[in-house]
Amino acid sequence: MSRVGKHPVIIPAGVDVSLTSGDISVKGKNGQLSIKLSTEVIVKSENGEVLVRPRTNSKQARMAWGTTKKLIQNLVDGVTKGFTKILEINGVGYRAAVQGKNLVLSLGFSHEVILPVPAGLTVKCEKPTSVAISGANKEQVGAFAAVIRDFRRPEPYKGKGVKYENEVIMRKEGKKK
After folding, report:
1. pTM score of the predicted model
2. Burial of 29: CB neighbours in 10 Å, binned 0-12, 13-18, 19+
3. Strand pairing category for 49-54 and 121-124
4. Exposure letters 59-90 (e unless 16+ CB within 10 A, then b)
5. What is the C-alpha separation between 15 and 135, in angstroms, rounded?
6. Ordered domains of the chain (ranges, CATH)
7. pLDDT digit string (tens) for 17-57?
8. What does each C-alpha distance from 134 to 122, 128, 144, 145 come to in angstroms?
């Protein structure tokens, strides 16, 4: 039995949920999001809640049960509150800035890294060493943060690089004389 899937998704005021055959669409103050539903689950919307149940008792249906519930919860959270990931940049001369619709990163390469900001996301650099990525789609926010982090992952000796705000870097001891 799925411990995640058995709880309903509560629909707050101001959010519209529409179920069609095979997909669910959620509309709120931050926009509209939709996903395709698995054929292994049954989704019902009633009394301000969305209920997800497995169609059969197969292993695949039980796996899709909790996943589908969490995906629907992420849609509802995205159109109401939105999601934010904060990246920290550590290193001498490492910095970030937003220029128009591009994110410009100086990460110790011979050139600056210029990334176009995807539609639906907002990027803010309140400090040159901090990048805040926010948007309604959790998957899109996380994917763009991962792309930025992949340019210069944090290294274990001095901790230089791009890391998530709450990420803990396991530090290693350097050479001894």
Report:
1. 0.90
2. exposed
3. unpaired
4. eebbbbbbbbbbbbbbbbbbbbebbebebbbb
5. 17
6. 9-80 (3.90.930.12), 83-164 (3.90.930.12)
7. 999 988 999 999 999 999 999 999 999 998 889 999 999 99
8. 5, 17, 10, 10
